[in-house]
Design goal:
Layout (H helix, E strand, L loop, with lengths): L13 E10 L2 E11 L4 E5 L6 H7 L10 E9 L2 E2 L7 H7 E4 L10 H11 L6 H11 L3 H4 L12 H14 L4 E5 L7 H14 L4 E5 L3 H7 L2 E7 L7 E8 H6 L4 H7 L5
Parallel strand pairs: 3-8, 3-9, 6-7, 7-8
Antiparallel strand pairs: 1-2, 1-4, 4-5, 9-10
Helix pairs in contact: 3-4, 3-6, 4-6, 6-7
């Protein structure tokens, strides 16, 4: 993937055009048209099984790790369709990083967890400075600066998740995808991650999948609500997308209001 800057007409960090995703013959997501704004936090919400995580993984081609998945339509990053045959998915993932639902540090030291991704991507600068700055950006440096040689697995759950965020930051992505990053954490650790997301949005575009309506309302600037089609085929579809405050106070569609207020889903 080239490092060309966005064109003058490209203002979105990511755009999807008629994005559809299939697991074998089953259509999981249908005709998603979405534009993600740069340096904002976008929350993807909706009931279980509506394709939220599937859409998120489409943004950096992670779905391709599942053999039966087929993707149609376009996902544009920097004006380029990342699904074109000549685009390297590994290069896509260097620009669009991901933090998963369950913290997954490597069985390596705290230092090596952060350095590993940068090293395999050919980083030639001062690794000590990169590790320090990445841990600091992930609000973790003060807690681990004397534990850099200890295993990342020895940290608490919340610390492990922030270590995974530091690992993602270290390769200097443009976009960070987060798939329910707080679902395995206690309320205090969740608050730390939410505060961290707000800080990171100054430098990164963040897209988060969450089942927690309060979390979506607290941290996101824009919200995309997905639900299942009503034609019996149960494909996930984008129902409403807009400013989070407006979505949570004056949604355009009744189905959105019903979900947000807990009347279904």
């Amino acid at each position: 993937m080239t490092d060309t800057a966005p064109t003058a007409t490209t203002t979105a960090a990511i755009e999807t055009h008629d994005l559809s995703i299939y697991y074998g013959s089953f259509q999981a997501v249908r005709d998603v048209n979405l534009d993600i704004q740069p340096n904002r936090i976008t929350a993807i919400i909706g009931p279980s099984g509506c394709g939220k995580s599937t859409v998120l993984r489409a943004f950096n081609r992670m779905n391709e790790l599942i053999p039966s998945v087929n993707t149609t339509g376009e996902v544009l990053f920097r004006g380029q369709n990342i699904y074109k045959p000549d685009v390297d998915p590994v290069e896509v993932r260097r620009h669009i990083g991901m933090v998963f639902q369950k913290p997954n540090p490597f069985p390596k030291s705290v230092y090596e967890n952060v350095a590993w991704g940068a090293r395999i991507n050919g980083f030639k600068g001062n690794m000590d400075e990169l590790v320090h700055s990445s841990l600091q950006s992930a609000a973790l440096w003060d807690e681990v600066k004397d534990k850099l040689d200890q295993s990342g697995l020895s940290l608490s759950g919340g610390q492990q998740q922030r270590l995974c965020i530091a690992r993602a930051i270290a390769v200097r992505p443009d976009i960070i995808l987060m798939d329910e990053p707080c679902s395995a954490l206690d309320p205090i650790a969740t608050l730390r991650i939410e505060e961290l997301m707000r800080d990171l949005a100054k430098d990164y575009t963040i897209i988060i999948v969450t089942h927690n309506m309060q979390q979506a309302a607290r941290v996101s600037d824009r919200t995309a609500f997905f639900s299942l089609s009503e034609d019996g085929k149960r494909a996930g579809m984008l129902m409403e997308y807009g400013d989070t405050k407006t979505m949570f106070t004056r949604p355009e569609k009744k189905i959105t209001e019903d979900y947000i207020t807990g009347r279904f889903g």
